[in-house]
Amino acid sequence: MERLQKVMAQAGVASRRASEKLITEGHVEVNGQLVTELGTKVSVHDLVSVDGVPIEPEPTEYYMLNKPRQVVSTAHDDKGRRTVVDILHDDGVETRVYPVGRLDYDTTGLLVLTNDGGLAQSLMHPKYETDKVYIAKIKGKLSREQEKQLRDGVKFDGHRARGAKVKVISTDDSRHTQIIEITIHEGHYHQVKKMLQAVGHPVMKLHRESYGPLSLGNLQAGEWRPLKPHEIHELKQAH
Questions:
Q1: Residues 6+ apart with CB under 8 A from 142
Q2: Domain 62-126+214-237's class?
Q3: Which residues form the RNA-binding S4 domain (predicted)?
């Protein structure tokens, strides 16, 4: 059973808030009966109509995007900035999809977008361990002790992050920078940046290369593609 306004939003009728207004203003019927209470719940067997027109659930769709810099990981932005959803919609995707989790404004890389709310909630729930692999360019050079700290789990914002996998890819001694691969299992706000800041190495650039069983492959910044059936299956099995 789901709340009526949620079912309407998932069917593409309107946003959840706009759907609530349609309900309270008397535009919605369930099994031929007018419904104006927001607490109403419906099942897949109930017939929901808006102004006499039955609604039909949108087919579930799943996309992978290589998020470019200076794009926000939301469906809408109050500041008018370009969003990840805008990228898909500009290319003709009409389904109301949403990003699974977020990448920072200046962070690039793999982001999943879908209208499968159940899967999105599962993937973002703290109890599920979804590996996320990042490539980070940092100031300075990690010492062996600092690498060990990251593997053991560092503390930031009063929270101790779980241990990460760390691999040094390259070091530029002349510019005092290093490129590393870091794999985390949680999804705290700015987690990679805060972990590396905590051991004294601010992040200069950050890119997410993979998410659970998914990898970007040859997908370039700003490009996207539908997930393949086996990828959708693996993503659902990953949690």
A1: 150, 166, 168, 178, 180, 199, 201
A2: alpha beta
A3: 2-59
Phi, psi of 159 (to 5 degrees): -125, 140
Q: Rounded distance, CA 122 to CA 236, Å?
A: 9
Inter-residue contact 3 to 20 (CB < 8 Å): no
Instruction: Give the global pTM.
Output: 0.81
Where in the sequence numbering do the catalytic residues fall? 104
Structure tokens, 46: 């109930």
Alpha-carbon distances, residue 169 vs 100, 162, 186 (angstroms): 28, 22, 22
Topology of domain 2-54, CATH: 3.10.290
Taking only the tens place, the pLDDT of each residue in 26-49 is 999 999 999 999 989 998 889 999
Amino acid at 177: T
Token pair listed for 8: 């309407």
d(CA 86, CA 70): 13
Q: What are phi and psi of 47, to 5 degrees?
A: -95, 115
pLDDT for 98-149, tens place per residue?
A: 999 899 999 999 999 998 888 888 888 766 778 999 999 999 999 999 999 9
Query: What is the distance in angstroms between the CA of the first residue and the CA of the last residue of the chain?
Result: 22
- Triad 64, 65, 67: Cα angle to 5°: 150
* Stretch (H or E) spanning 32: none
